[in-house]
Amino acid sequence: MNYDEAMKIDGVKFGDMPPQPFLLGLLSAFNNRYQAAADAYFKEITWKQFFAIICINLCTEPPTLNELSDVMGSSHQNVKQILLKLESKGFVSTVSDENDKRKQRIFVTDKCRKFLEKNDNNGSRSLHVISRIFEGIDKKSLQTTIKTIMMMERNLSEI
Asked: For the chain, which residues make up each domain, given as ranges?
């Protein structure tokens, strides 16, 4: 594949770069661009803060900091900083675990739930943005991409 032709970025020459480092760079650049766009989309919180809320809501019970760090794929320290900011904004709270007082469980607040409703996090507005990102990508290509990234994730965890 001719990356120079495909990317159409003046002043950058990818040359004969192998596909593996090109894909990693492409994923990193996409993540940066997506984060900037998502930060602009939500006025009250950042994309990383919103992602933390999504991950909290995916857990079957309110997670601990360590559990949330695992789900988010981020360090304990980074997630702690995100949670401190969310807590200062009134979006999450931490409560001692009923069975083990050493553990702190993370809960989303009513303010957070209202924010999610207001921003239509599962509705047409967000789905429209997501559908625009995936425009022209067929289901088989998407499934192949998901499978590839999941295999990369599994390999990374073994390093």
From this structure: 1-41, 48-109, 123-159
- Please give the full DSSP string across 35-85, using - where no structure is assigned: HHHHHHH-SSS-HHHHHHHHHHHHSSSPPPHHHHHHHHTS-HHHHHHHHHH
- pLDDT single digits (tens) 78-136: 999 999 999 999 999 999 988 888 899 999 999 999 998 887 654 445 556 677 888 99
Q: What is the pTM of this model?
A: 0.81
105 contacts 64 by C-beta, under 8 angstroms: yes
CATH 3.40.1010.10 fits 48-109, yes or no: no
Residue 55: how many other CB atoms lie within 10 Å: 20
Q: Which positions ≥6 away from 45 have C-beta within 8 Å? A: 53, 86, 89, 91, 115
